[in-house]
Amino acid sequence: MNRLLLAAYPEPHRSRQGEEVLACLSEAYPGRSWPPPREVAALVRAGLQARARAVVDDTARPWWLDGIHLAALALAALALVPYLQDVWHWALHIDPGQHAIAFRFSGWYPWAEGPTRIRLLPYGLLPLGCLIALLRGRAWIALPAAAAMIWAGATSHGRTLFGDEGKAGLGYYGLGAPITARDLVLSGALCAACAVLALCRPGRLRRRSYRWLAPVVLAMFVAGGLHVISVSPAFQRGLFVLEVAALIAAWVATAATGDHRWLIPVAAFAVVRMQAIVVRPDAFMQSFPDLVVLILLIAPLPALAIAAQRRQGQALAE
Q: What are the TM regions of this chain, as residue ranges (predicted)?
């Protein structure tokens, strides 16, 4: 089990020091397959810091381009979250029936039972395609997908291609108000980021493995296969913890390197979330007080900037 902790480190680090780390863990905690929680947290933190330093040491691309790429990935994932169940059911030809969450009709495809309103494709395919293209560094493929998201959100009524985007009410959201396809701030920001990436020599973009899609498939299974209710407080708090963990990871990376690239995705996330709250302040699930959510969205930006400035000051002093 100790080998699982090594996955937090970049591959070169695992090749050089992986066996040494495993030997130290076996010597420090004999007979245990898993170290204490404090040691696990320290190893994961060190792994994140090592990965962040490896990213900064890679000079193949400017920091701001990498930051915009990360922001586009975060926005594509955020746009996909409300439609995980929809895409899962469409791909497996599942009729969710009464398990559908905040959908206007119990059936949306020709194979669905009951009163149906047939549409050709689920809207979630657009952010999913955008996410996959961005993971592989193909911004020229992600750009038309993001532009189609704007078109679909702006012309949602009376269409049979995506229907009403499969979502008529509340959906998945963690920090803040629900973000639907009709909220063009999210799709517009994603399209703008993809346009910048497509124009700035896409061949320089970082390409990530398809293994990064494993959490997406797992999330689709949880949302669609297990019929998890998105309006459940437990689900809302789970997504809240996930988003906070991502913000903490950005802070750890910034504090370790003094690099500003992680400010860009955090700023994009905060702007999109806060815009949804300002437009519909009464749309909270009330799992958390409004003021707490707003503070959690605003606070990471100065925290990351201060962490980067402090790290740069330490580097100059050394």
A: 63-84, 118-135, 140-159, 179-200, 212-229, 235-255, 262-279, 291-308
Q: What is the pTM of this model?
A: 0.81
Residues 81-131 have pLDDT tens digits of: 878 887 888 888 877 666 665 555 545 666 666 555 666 778 888 999 999
What is the rounded distance in angstroms from the CA atom of residue 126 to the CA atom of residue 190?
12
SS3 116: strand
d(CA 257, CA 141): 31
First and final CA of the chain: distance in angstroms?
38
Cβ atoms within 10 Å of 77's Cβ, excluding its own: 19
The more confidently predicted of residues 294 and 138 is 138
Q: What is the DSSP letter of 155?
A: T
Q: What is the dihedral of CA 87, 197, 199, 79, to 10 degrees?
A: 30
207 Cα distance to chain centroid: 16
Q: What pLDDT band is residue 305 in, cutting at 50, 70 and 90?
A: confident
State how far the alpha carbon of 156 is from the alpha carbons of 31, 146, 152, 165, 169, in Å: 60, 15, 6, 7, 14
Give pairs for 166-170: CB < 8 Å, separation 24+. 166/83, 166/86, 166/103, 166/108, 166/119, 166/122, 166/123, 166/124, 167/82, 167/83, 167/86, 167/102, 167/103, 167/123, 168/102, 168/103, 168/104, 169/102, 170/101, 170/102, 170/230, 170/231, 170/283, 170/285
- Is residue 144 within 8 A of residue 211, CB to CB? The reply is no
